[in-house]
Amino acid sequence: MTRAQDILRLTPAGLYCEAGDFYIDPLRKVSRAVVTHGHSDHARPGHDAVLATKETLAVMAARYGDTFTAAQQPARLGETIALGDANIMLKPAGHVVGSAQVVVEVGGKRVVVSGDYKRARDPTCPPFEPVPCDLFITEATFGLPLFRHPPAGDEVAKLLHSLRLFPDRPHIIGAYSLGKAQRFIALLREAAYSAPIYVDAATAKLCAIYESHGVPLGDIRPAASQSANTLNGAIIVGKAEFQNGTNDPVTAYASGWMRTRKRARAANVDLPLIISDHADWHELTATIAEVVPGELWITHGAEAALIHWATTRGIRARPLSIAGYGDEEEGAQQ
Amino acid sequence: MNRFASLIARLETVNDAGTKALIVADYLSETPEPDRSLAQKILDRSLKPRPVRIALIRGLADARIDAELFALAEAYVGDVGETIALTWVPNRRANRDPALSEIIEALSTLGRSELPKRIESWLDACDETGRWALIKLITGTLRVERSAADNKEQPSPQSELFQRPPKKDTSGSIPAILLYAERTNPRATTSPLRCTFGVWDGDKLAPIGHCNVEGGDAERLESFIAEHTTARFGPVRQVRHDRDVAFVAELAFTAIAETPRRKAGITLRGARFTKPIDNASPSDAASLTALASRLHSA
Fold this sequence. Notes:
The structure holds two protein chains of two kinds. By secondary structure, chain A is an alpha/beta fold.
């Protein structure tokens, strides 16, 4: 009889499913990859075949060129796909555009790989759908009880307040180019901010993918070609390098790590904003309670607290150290 | 309390004196009396309520959170008060957070037996920034970050804050050498590295400050530490640091302080790891005499 723990195993190339002969978010080139979302620590170029949502495939093509894989296999959310002796299904993860959890079923047992996810509302992607399972493999980027992200709208309001206080100064928001930037822009639009928003080249490319997949972002313009005076009093989203070409900017940085004063000070910006596309402690524990797994594996670093929490609730839990995940978000902060 | 707390938090991250002044003026203009005068006095440091012991607040937190989870959170945050503020889960939502005046008055009138219950209700009613500043305020550890620059020309808004003689500005950055490193939480391999840095004192290196390093920079440090550990003291690694081989990094700091009881005699306050300096020779690191003269000429 199949045990849920035997469906996937960790190899140097990443999580491998023998029954279906595929890897999930592999770190090295493999013959078949199932990719949860487009962040570069999960989606790498050079696999022979890639199965992912059409949005994720579009993100990979935009970043790596159309030749990032020989065979693109788009999968609809909720569609069952047979791979060898395994059935897989992608379910929304609520992380960034196209992000998905991977549900793997072999011999009547079900494993869910969460990928990166959040439960907070995000106008740019469908919400996470909990799937009950025998084994849940969860990320734990913010796996400490001190991480509780405030409502993102409140953080956006802080920026708009600063803009009222300093109406002539450009406001530069450091935000990761895939996901954070577009969510931030969409939240600004929800807050009735309708002026043009300026972005760097990488962010612009990804904004276009969001637009073409039905996420309106309003008037988006390239920041690089603007004169310094045009940017006075404007909002600029992306890498903070524009500072040099602008007049006396107010700098902000949007990240879940801004929760602690130490990290907020270290970011060296005027306005640290706590906005994250990862589940906070409350979302992680609520999700685990909802999917009631027989066993829990935890990736992405901060696992000790979550293992303790799960164990005290009678859930078997262990860390799954996949080197390399989480680099993108961390790197964006440097 | 929440609004005052976000003011304090913002003053911590904003560097520019003019921006600070405007933010303070904006806050005061929207704050009714008596909180407005109280806030001014706290900013001026002319009002310091009789402090409550942190152990009392820690006791309140112990009743709310699993001890193991608290310990893990504290190892990450590095500050008991802030850890309580961030991990506190309010029992019930109050209609409003307490006014500054309410807090100051209660601290001076309530007896020892009544105080814990009241503090608990404040912690329930504040948001996390409010709890953070509340704990700092009532334990007497609130530090108001004033301008780390000489701003004589800065017009003073309503606040007396900026009319005081400016403090000497000794902030800056220097190349320094890694001496020791340890994990802030030995149980978590991804926890930040606490690093001690030194500068040249003749032919030896004198420790002048420490800071936490994490993320990609920590990985760079780790690979150096892995290859160049020369001694271990419990969790602390001593790394090679001589004229031939050393890890040179740029350290930024908010001030240089005289600390006569320390080996080097001076210490960098608010030290922050900015970046590794590639291709630097260990001799490129700063010297103690240069730092001391920078302090005395400021």
